[in-house]
Each structure stands twice: as structure tokens, then as C-alpha cells.
Amino acid sequence: MKQPDLATEIDMFGRMTIALEEVEACREFTALIPEVRTNMVFAHPHAKTPDEVIAVDGRITSINGMPRAAGRVRFGASGHMARLIIELMKTDPTVRAGIDFANPLGFSDWLSDYCIQQGWASAMIDRRTEPVELRIAEGSSMQWKAAESVRATGGRVPKIICDAGGMGKEPVCIIVGNEPIGIAREVCRIARDYVRSQE
Known about the structure:
By secondary structure, the protein is α+β, with helices and mostly antiparallel strands. Helices cover 40% and strands 20% of the residues. The chain has helices spanning 6-24, 80-91, 107-118, 132-136, 140-152, 180-197, and strands at residues 40-43, 53-56, 60-63, 66-69, 73-75, 97-102, 122-125, 160-163, 172-177. The strands form two sheets. A seven-stranded mixed β-sheet has the order 5-2-1-6-9-8-7, sandwiched between helices. It has a two-stranded antiparallel ribbon with strand order 3-4.
């Protein structure tokens, strides 16, 4: 990969570190960690491959009731999420960061209402309509998912992308933004409000 300049790299690692600390301090987020675990990504401004995207090595899991990163943040630590962000950047280059989280039964309806309250655009993707040839081709699903989410919101990148899952695909949601600290705080606020709504 083409290495970013040192100042950009320092800024990216710093922001990811702070964002990860925000997530790890949010107990409620454990309720939204999917079975496949969570990853958070932050792409270089001109990223073209996953090697130019910082992510959490080993993803984020739950340990003793708290979110915990399995490894360090590094370039090339994500495949699927990195490819999704790279695809979304083709529509909006400012959208460089994302974090995925669980979409349990009934959650997407709650989240849809939440998005309306926040003034956020959201998209629900039906994985059952994904062409079979894309489902089985490595990396193609994220291109399709990005394109479908942009199509669903009239040509712009939505703040929230959700899917209901499918054969062998766990239902997940993703929140995106221009840098990771902001999306970490937003997803933690979602988690806290959702957990409170279930009490």
C-alpha cells in the first residue's frame, strides 16, 4: 500500500485509540456486539484497498460484561468493513469511518425511529435480494451492500445501514461518519438509549 504521510498516520492512530477507549468504556454496548463481533474502521483519505484502512485486530468482543478489543489497531486488520467504507467513499469521500453492531429482533424498528429523531438518513438492506454470484464471490457483498444503501437513500450515503441478515449472514447495522471518535460516541449513545428503552 501507499503509506500515508507521518502526520496523517499519527492523527489516524490517535483518533482510533480515543474512539476505542470510548467504546470500551460503554458497558451498554455489550448488548449490541454481534456474534461475529464488532469492528471499527478508519480509512486513509485516498484509500483504495483494506491495507489502507485502520481497524481493530481481532475485533471487539465482550469480556466480563465490558467491550474489549481483542488486539491493537493497525492498517489491514479488516476485510469486510474496510471494503464497505472504501465503496461508500466513492459516493462521499468524507465518509471514512464506521463501526458495526448487532441488529437483534425488533431493534431495527427502534433504530429507525431513533434515526428520525436525530435527523439521520438510514437504509435497510434486504440480503435476500443479493445476487447469488455476489454472495459467493469474496469481497463482492460489501460492494453490493454499499450500492444498495446509497440507492435506498436517493444517491447519498446514509448515516445508518442495517440488514436483516440472510442465509449464513448475521443481521447487523453500521454507523458511518468522517472520523471514528464521533461515531464511537454516537454508537455508545445508541446503545445506552436502547438498553434504557428495554428496562
